[in-house]
Specification:
The protein is mainly alpha-helical and 275 residues long. It has one domain. Helices cover 62% and strands 7% of the residues. The chain has helices spanning 3-17, 38-55, 62-85, 125-128, 131-146, 149-170, 174-182, 186-217, 224-236, 251-268; strands at residues 22-24, 31-33, 98-102, 110-113, 117-121. The chain starts with a helix and ends in a 7-residue tail after the last helix.
């Protein structure tokens, strides 16, 4: 299927169904699709978060968990204070913030679910190294929630599925025939490679940018962020997939972007003093 036709069909399909709803991401003002109520996704995320806490082994390192909570509280405050001072609706209103530390040295990761449910894996601590590094990672993950990326991705998936079904009908079932003949979801694969992945990389870059801002507003040294990605690049030992096949920008591109943004963010988003 032609990529341009697909994008046109995606837009037309949403409009014809009368379900298209566009909002903008705070600060970046990028337009995004929102078809799913935030309250619904937050409620689902909270349930999944409880299951994660039951299933995963939680760390008994109270000092490190307290450090994570302290960083989180500073970022929470700075985000809310920034939007209040800017006379912009606080996108974290209604968040029920929560933090856990998962004891898994093999996983170098952290995430923030919709509604402010955050998890840090002990494996990422070897990469973050210090408080500024940990704040950089947490700022990035929190940025995903602030920018409503999960809602946007879920909405885009809904819209994509609708358009694929309509296109299959209009093609007389040719797409379904291809799937049955090849024994694989060809359309799904092409959609992921050509449509969904670049969109996801855009979200990741946006979270990098917003995360730097939130960390700077919270008083952390965002110059540590470059060092994190240099360490991550070294830890991956060249095993990163080609960028066009990845949902994340390459470490090299991330480092370049962060260096390009650094001075501007430090000047434009100085630390907010806790009153």
């Amino acid at each position: 299927m032609d990529r341009r036709f697909f994008l046109q069909a995606l837009g037309c399909g949403c409009l014809s169904l009368g379900i298209s709803s566009c909002t903008t991401v705070p600060i970046t003002d990028r337009r995004q699709l929102k078809l799913i109520p935030e309250s619904k996704l937050n409620a689902q995320a909270a349930k999944i978060y409880e299951k994660v806490k039951e299933k995963e082994k939680l760390s008994d390192d109270i000092n490190k968990l307290n450090e994570i909570k302290d960083i989180g509280k500073r970022i929470e405050y700075s985000i809310s204070e920034y939007f209040e001072r800017s006379n912009i609706k606080d996108p974290t209103t209604g968040f029920d913030w929560e933090y856990i530390l998962i004891d898994n040295k093999k996983v170098k990761n952290a995430w923030c679910m919709p509604g402010g449910k955050i998890a840090v894996y002990t494996g990422i601590l070897d990469v973050t190294k210090n408080t500024n590094g940990l704040a950089a990672v947490m700022g990035h993950e929190i940025a995903h929630a602030v920018a409503k990326h999960s809602i946007e991705r879920a909405s885009r998936n809904v819209a994509t599925n609708v358009v694929l079904q309509v296109t299959d009908i209009l093609s007389g079932g040719k797409l379904s025939t291809v799937n049955r003949t090849t024994g694989m979801n060809t359309v799904g694969l092409l959609t992921q490679m050509g449509i969904l992945n670049p969109f996801s990389r855009k979200q990741e870059s946006e979270a990098d940018y917003l995360g730097l801002i939130f960390s700077s507003l919270s008083g952390y040294d965002i110059r540590e962020t470059v060092k994190i990605w240099e360490r991550m690049q070294k830890a991956n030992k060249g095993k990163e997939p080609p960028e066009f096949m990845s949902t994340h920008p390459s470490s090299a591109n991330r480092i370049k972007n962060i260096n390009d943004w650094m001075n501007e963010i430090i000047l434009d988003y100085p630390p907010i003093k806790v009153s």
